[in-house]
Design brief:
Elements (H helix, E strand, L loop, with lengths): L9 H11 L4 H14 L3 E2 L13 E6 L3 E7 L9 E7 L4 E12 L2 E9 L12 E13 L2 E10 L32 E4 H11 L13 H9 L2 H11 L6 E10 L4 E3 L5 E4 L2 H17 L12 E7 L16 H12 L8 H6 L2 E5 L2 E2 L21 E4 L10 H13 L4 E4 L11 H9 L2 E6 L1 E3 L6 E4 H22 L7
Parallel strand pairs: 1-2, 4-13, 4-14, 14-18, 15-19, 16-17
Antiparallel strand pairs: 2-3, 3-13, 5-6, 6-9, 7-8, 7-10, 11-12, 12-20, 16-18, 19-20
Helix pairs in contact: 1-6, 2-6, 6-11, 9-11
């Protein structure tokens, strides 16, 4: 696996490996699935009945871009609460269009659409490739079936070149047009023609019929060169690729960096950093034989897709996936006919974990004076009076109390009154399910850039804090009285 780090302690080495294994949400789920299976979690399916047991650990995926894992305490009875950390697997990126074939000025280009609110100027002059999933047609003994296959081309095959400064003397700064300027170059037409001829195929841009109508149709939608590269990567024929969901990604690996090796430089820290920390916290908090012995609740992690575009999808936080999981676990272990889910929800708690804005030394005026999260300063509790974050005094206290008990640093963030505030899955889950929620995140710089950065210490703090939450929430929550 590229970028493996062996010279740092466990959590840092593991997050670097996780980041490098996860160029897309699909790959992040695949890597999470591998880690969960290794830790003894059993895969279950939403398409089947669930026969769950206390003291056991399970997970399921939806669309292979969201994943929910949970461990049922041995003291759990239906109606008890769920202790959940929620994060998301997606990041801003450039996704291939349904018809990606673009030919201009002797170049083969690839049509892309913007996904989320990326800093698109950072995608210029980077060594890019593609990754995602393919739908493959397979034939065996006369029967045809279709499989979902993850794909990743490791070599840099695309680039979005900047315009030379001599040809653009504007003083307004670089403001690329996302339709006309943000189009990666795959190859030149002349080289593609020669490559086709050498392979004994038709012209690279020919509209002539081939021996396979399906292949002819695909060649009109996507460059045959791109289809050949994808087919070669997964070991199939280009004409067996029925469809795909692909995105561009940087080929530079995630690394521990800085003069004192105190930073992580990587793409997709928002929000794979929180996804990894929550996943590892769940795995490690349930790893020993006795870890669930006295647990009356269910420890759960939910990694959703599509947060960057509003979460309104079948596998986003705005879907019923979370409610379905709580309902099915409760029902599976409920021997009576009474409805206990409503009671369980009121005993439950969600930590919405999404990266936070660290104070930028060159733009200090962008932060409110008394709320300036620092790197190495620990997790940030996010507050917003207008409910862009779901934190309130009770949920903030619970998370802060855990930090104080373990001597972990903690910070607060409020956006300036004269600036708009972003949001997270926190308010979506809080309002959609009616569950207590706190919004938190590790501080980072360059959020939504193709290359982001955070502090090594904050990865460790995040993991330790979330692990402590899983292990101690039940006991702490029993001491809090609010609605009486």
């Amino acid at each position: 696996m590229a970028g493996v780090v062996d010279s740092y302690d466990g959590v840092v080495s593991e997050i670097i490996n996780f980041l490098n294994a996860s160029p897309t949400a699909f790959h992040a789920v695949d890597e999470a699935k591998r880690l969960l299976k290794k830790a003894g979690f059993e895969q279950i399916s939403e398409k089947q009945d669930w026969k769950l047991q206390v003291g056991k650990k399970y997970f399921f995926t939806r669309n292979y871009s969201s994943i929910v894992a949970f461990a049922i305490g041995k003291m759990f009875v239906a109606g008890n609460g769920f202790h959940i950390v929620g994060a998301h697997t997606d990041s801003p990126c450039l996704k291939l269009k349904p018809v990606s074939k673009v030919t201009k000025a002797g170049f083969l280009e690839v049509g892309v659409q913007t996904y989320g609110g990326g800093l698109w100027h950072t995608w210029f002059d980077r060594d890019l490739t593609v990754a995602g999933r393919l739908i493959i047609r397979e034939s065996k003994d006369g029967a045809v079936s279709y499989s979902h296959r993850l794909v990743r081309i490791h070599e840099p095959i695309m680039r979005i070149p900047n315009l030379a400064i001599h040809l653009d003397r504007s003083t307004d700064g670089f403001k690329p047009n996302s339709q006309t300027h943000l189009v990666p170059i795959l190859a030149t037409s002349v080289k593609a023609e020669l490559n086709k001829a050498a392979a004994g195929n038709v012209s690279a841009e020919s509209d002539g019929k081939t021996s396979n109508d399906k292949k002819d149709t695909d060649d009109k939608k996507h460059h045959s060169l791109l289809l050949q590269l994808l087919a070669s990567e997964v070991g199939c024929k280009p004409e067996d690729i029925c469809d795909f969901e692909l995105q561009l990604c940087d080929t530079q690996p995630s690394i521990v960096a800085g003069a004192l090796k105190e930073f992580i430089f990587s793409g997709r820290l928002d929000n794979l950093c929180m996804s990894f920390c929550s996943l590892k916290a769940l795995i490690d908090s349930t790893s020993s034989e006795s870890s669930l012995e006295d647990e009356p609740g269910v420890r759960m992690v939910a990694l959703f897709d599509h947060e960057e575009v509003g979460s309104n999808s079948a596998q986003g936080a705005g879907s019923p996936v979370m409610f379905d999981a709580l309902s099915r676990v409760t029902d599976s272990l409920n021997s009576s006919t009474s409805k206990l889910l409503e009671k369980a929800i009121q005993k439950s708690f969600v930590v919405s974990a999404d990266m936070a804005h660290a104070l930028h030394p060159n733009y200090m005026d962008k932060h409110e004076e008394n709320h300036q999260p620092k790197m190495h300063g620990g997790l940030v509790i996010k507050h917003n009076a207008n409910q862009r974050y779901a934190t309130n005094a009770v949920t903030s206290f619970i998370f802060r109390e855990i930090a104080e008990k373990h001597n972990l640093p903690i910070q607060d963030f409020v956006v300036r009154n004269d600036m708009p505030c972003g949001s997270t899955i926190g308010p979506i889950l809080a309002s959609g399910i009616g569950i207590r929620t706190v919004d938190i995140g590790a501080p980072q710089l360059s959020m939504h850039s193709i290359r982001e950065m955070c502090a090594v210490d904050d990865v460790k703090h995040s993991y330790q804090h979330l692990k402590a939450f899983y292990e101690e929430f039940s006991q702490l929550d029993g001491k809090i009285t609010v609605d009486i």
